Every structure is written in C-alpha cells, then in structure tokens.
Amino acid sequence: MIDRTHLCGTCLTTAALVALAGCSATPPAKLYALTPIAPPATAPAAWASTPAAIDIARVRLPEYLDREEIVWRSGQNEIHLDDNHHWAERPSVALTRVLAIDLSILTGRDARVLADETGHGPRLLLTIDLQRFEIAADGSAVLVGRWAASDAGAAERARGTLAFRQPVAASDTKPDAAAEVVALNRCLADAAAAISQGLARAQL
Q1: Handedness of CA 43, 44, 50, 53 (dihedral sign)
Q2: Helix crossing, 177-201 with 91-107: angle to 10°?
Q3: Which of 11, 40, 87, 184 has the CA that lies 20 to 30 A from 59?
Q4: Burial (CB count within 10 angstroms: exposed 0-12, middle 13-18, buried 19+), residue 137
Q5: What whole-number distance in Å separates Cα of residue 47 and Cα of residue 152?
Q6: Structural contact between residues 34 and 184, judged by C-beta atoms closer than 8 angstroms
Q7: pTM here?
Q8: Which domains, and CATH codes, for the chain?
Q9: pLDDT at res. 153
Q10: Which tens digit of pLDDT belongs to each residue from 144-173?
Q11: What is the pLDDT of residues 65-112, one digit of tens each?
Q12: Is the peptide bond before 39 cis (omega within 30 degrees of 0)?
C-alpha cells in the first residue's frame, strides 16, 4: 500500500526546493561589445602612391584576459572576474575586428582581419601583442602592448609601443561595467591612432 502522506510530503518538499531554486537563480550576465570609431566627415587621403592592404593578425592577449568575463585588478597580483558582465565575443577576436575597422577609417586603406598567411598584391602584415587590456586597481582602463608591421617578404618595416590609460566615468554604482567598457574602448581608439601615425611616419 502506498503511503500517500509520505508521498505528498515528498512532493511538497520537491516543490519547495524548485521554488527556492527559481528565486535564487542568478540573472543572465549582461553582454558588452567593443565598437569602432566614428568615420570622419571626409575620408583621409592615403599617403602611399600604391597603398598596400593592411592584414591584421589576431591580437595576442595573455590567457587570463582572453576570456568572456571582464577582468579588473585590486592589486599588483590579484585579479577579479566579473561574473555578471561578459564580453559579447572573445576579446582577441573583438580587438582584431575593431582595430581593422578603425585603421580603415584612419588610413583610408583596406585594413582587414588576416584569414591566412597568403596574400596577393602589395600588403602589410600587422601584429599586435597586448600585455594589458583591463581595469587597473585605481579604477582606470589600461591598454599596454606593442605592434609591428612587416612586408610581404616578412621583413619588419615599422614597430612601436602602446601605453594608454583612460579614466572611468564616475557612477553611483560600483563597479560600473558599462563605463569601464567605454573607457577600454577609448584606449583601443588611442591604440589605433598611434598605429596609424606610426605607419604614416614610416611611409607605409
């Protein structure tokens, strides 16, 4: 004979656990994307008589930065991952894509994400190695790294360093992930401008 009292008690307990789980479920993480700079009113003139296409290899990042969670530091050696605020795409992919668009706008040339190592016609291969792309312990956004440009024969033609810091807009909510992403985006725009100027100085 089935003990209906025990069965009903079990059902009630199960229902209570399901309800409790529903109440305690964490909301889905908010997603953030990097965006390109705004195009100028007039397109810039290319500085080379035969402008080479700019192929951009995927931006290299330390593994702890190339992840979905937004990373911020609380000290020299301590980092934190924001479980409630995520990148919409892998940072190395987003950085490469947006840099290609920014450089196309800034140089007036064809800047594209490198699909493979083969190419046709005049081209430059641009590599970017970032050591930092994160929120620093003081609350500012930081981008630190280096870049290099080589020709189709793999000879290096130009190089430079990148070191940019942007303040995060004050907010009553701490931390404010949206403001942090805006500041990181400004660092990326600064990096694109620096690379564009470096290519111009090298007459590439």
Answers
A1: negative
A2: 50
A3: 40
A4: middle
A5: 19
A6: yes
A7: 0.81
A8: 30-201 (3.40.50.10610)
A9: 75
A10: 999 999 987 778 999 999 999 999 987 655
A11: 999 999 999 888 899 998 899 999 999 999 999 999 999 999 988 898
A12: no
